[in-house]
Amino acid sequence: MSDFELYSYQEEVVERALHGENIIIWLPTGGGKTRAAVYVAKRHLETTRQAKVVVLVNKVHLVDQHYNKEFKPHLGLNYKLVPVSGESDEKDFFGIVVQTSDVIICTAQILYNALINTEESKHVELSDITLLIIDECHHTNKESVYNKIMRCYLEKKLKEKRPLPQILGLTASPGTGGAKILEKAVEHVLQICANLDSAIVSTKNYAPELKKKVPRPVKRFDIVEKRPADPFGDLLKWMMELIHGYMNIPPDFKLRQCGTQEYEADVVILEQRGVKENNRLLAQCALHLRQYNDALLINDTLRMMDAYDSLEEFYNTKATKAMDGTDLFLLGLFQENRVELKKLASDSRFENPKMGKLESVLLEQFSQGVKSRGILFSKTRRSTYCLNDWVLHNRTLQGAGIKAAILTGAGNGGTYMTQHEQGETICSFRNGSLNLLISTSVAEEGLDIPECNLVVRYGLLTNEIAQQQASGRARAQQSLYSVVALRGGREERREFTNEYLEELTGKAIAKVQDLSPQVFLKKIRELQMQAVISSKLAESLKTEKKSRYTASSVQLLCRNCFKPVASGSDIKLVDNAHYVNVNPDFARHYKTGGKLSFPKSFEDWEPGHTISCNNGNCNKDWGYEIKYKKTALLPNLAIKNFALQTPDERITVKKWKDVLFTVEDFSFQQYCEENFPEIFD
Q1: Of the candidates 363, 364, 372, 227, which has an alpha carbon nearest to the alpha carbon of residue 303?
Q2: Which residue did the predictor score with more confidence, 423 or 297?
């Protein structure tokens, strides 16, 4: 294995880690944090008896990226390296992998599962690890999996249980945690240090070298004026007013301005209230108002036709049949105005001025005969698809040689990309067959994306961490960081706020670094003790909450038609992931739809058909069937599609972890004995 050099600023930030201290390396995106971590890992492996290095990442695609690009080239000849993610077979015997390897690169969830697993082949102790490297470590807060791992560490530390691994955190920005004043920002940085049991280090002596290595892009606000008229948006608002009048909004409830995130929050609460009060009129009107509000938000950011298409899609797929007068009114309202809406959406005189500004920003970079490479950041997966469609059908942009593709997060389902698709897209971007990525926040941190000379933030409201990381993608010389926004709008204001918070973060870190070692250690120990006590208390409250009702005393109701369809005692938990109904009688309450397919296969189960409510014309989506161990066909339910009738009141929850009764684990043997008794006779 050939040795490798570090820049002087990298040597400065790793010095304390090389002496065995716990540290957080704070360097900007592109500053070579991962390279510095590889150097520390190499020295650690050379000098530590029975060294065991675990590298934690917070996104699946980073496992292979760090393994192939950074760790394997420098450590692969002399040490055994293993990448492990949820898509790897090694996760099923992770304990053995840790015992037999020198360097393990894995998602944080894999390690946490191993820490709490009692099976010998899967279990890992923190004492098995000698160096724990945590990538993007600013995520070590609240209930993140990074913080759950570090709480295990802190509990052992405070009980003086040794040995514990050395910690090495990597971040481009710890942020201010929402704080707007220096004192609170300092508290946030100290909390991150306490959570990671580490001091935070940055370059003091070689800042000019770092600045030369990671040049800041030219930042520009590309501001547009409000469009002079918006008849399409006005018609949407008029239709919303008609719904307001029809739905009898409770006198104690005031809706804020439509076309805003605040309005969306209001109608979500109204829908929940309608479900709780058995008021289907209120609940359904609120659901439809949310769709109209989404259309207004899209109209503000994208093309008018994108906004119209979002409504058309909803009424074609979600609400094709009427159950009662409420549905007839809502469907009729859209049908009666559909033609006029489409006509207005097609009128180029009233098109969104932001789109015109975005076009000119792109043409400025891509029409100069220079080989340009850019990233266009947008908020949602839907917006990335709309923008990509716009680029593909815009003759001027095509004439400028723009070859665009979408980059979104990995996951299951049609709107997600597979890990393989992500890799192929980035590879095409690197080799030049693509020159514009249209991306959600997935490209802000971690991904190994080549230097860009253009980064555009479009329709985004994010924090200072995301802004810094997006800006860090524009690393080519003379690169441009453009913010396309409405004059005086929320995006422009947020960008100015983030600039202030970025500066505040630097000041807060400097304050923490200026503390004497004694004061620093005293402060973080106090914070650590508070964190462990708070964690124990939260766990106790969670257990208490889970046992508020017996499972048999809670009924599941369809969230659309309110028909009772299951008892809480029918629900069992499969593999700590799927909440299924094991009562065979449940089958009469639902009908099956299309067959689902996911981009990857799973060890013990495979997806089946979608399921929906079978009550009249309800058709409410409920989830999908899974085939477990090639035998059991089980309806896998999404709790957000149901209401819960408890002995006290009717409630709604977003996730199964929030239900107020205990869900027992699924027993495959018991299921087989009850459903296939002839086998056991």
Answers
A1: 227
A2: 297
Tokens coding 574: 């499969």
Asked if 605 contacts 627 with a C-beta cutoff of 8 angstroms, the reply is yes
d(CA 573, CA 569): 11
Q: Cα dist. 467→463, 477, 481, 499 in Å?
A: 6, 19, 10, 9
* CATH architecture for the domain at 234-350: Up-down Bundle (1.20)
Long-range contacts of 530-534, Cβ-Cβ distance < 8 Å, separation of 24 or more: 531/151, 531/154, 531/194, 531/195, 532/151, 532/154, 532/155, 532/158
Q: Which candidate, 281, 301, 300, places its Cα nearest to that of 236?
A: 300
Amino acid at 329: F
CB atoms within 10 A of CB 202: 19
Q: Where are the domains of the chain?
A: 8-212, 215-226+352-510, 234-350, 551-680
The sign one gets for the Cα dihedral 256, 260, 262, 266 is: positive
Give the separation between CA 276 and CA 651, rounded to whole angstroms.
Answer: 6
Judge contact between 383 and 302, C-beta under 8 A. yes
67 phi/psi in degrees, rounded to 5:
-65, -50
Report the CATH number of the 8-212 domain.
3.40.50.300
Q: Who wins on pLDDT, 597 or 639?
A: 639
Q: pTM for the whole thing? A: 0.87
Residue 235 class from Cβ within 10 Å (0-12 exposed, 13-18 middle, 19+ buried)?
middle
User: How much is the average pLDDT of 431-448?
Assistant: 79
What is the amino acid identity at position 259? G
Query: pLDDT confidence of 1, banded at 50, 70, 90?
Result: very low
Q: State the residue for tokens 């389902």.
A: 413
Q: Please check whether residue 12 is in contact with residue 204, taking contact to mean a CB–CB distance below 8 angstroms.
A: yes
Q: How confident is the model at residue 2 (pLDDT cuts 50, 70, 90)?
A: very low
The Cα–Cα gap between 394 and 388 comes to 10
Distance of CA 166 to the CA centre of its chain: 28
551-680 carries CATH number 3.40.50.80: no
Distances (CA, A) of 35 to 75, 646, 665: 12, 54, 44
Query: Could you tell me if 484 and 222 are in contact, meaning their C-beta atoms sit under 8 angstroms apart?
Result: yes
Q: Are strands 555-558 and 590-595 parallel, antiparallel or unpaired?
A: unpaired
- What does the pLDDT average to over 373-401? 93
Find out whether 357 and 222 touch, Cβ atoms under 8 Å: yes
The CATH architecture to which 215-226+352-510 belongs is 3-Layer(aba) Sandwich (3.40)
Nearest in space to 457 (alpha carbons), one of 492, 502, 415, 499: 492
Smallest CA-to-CA distance from 371 within 426, 429, 448, 427 is with 429
Closest Cα partner for 311 from 325, 327, 297, 328?
297
User: Tokens 């400065």 sit at which residue?
Assistant: 12
Annotate 62-94 with b (16+ C-beta within 10 A) or e (fewer): bbbbbbeebbbebbeeebebbbbbebbebbeeb
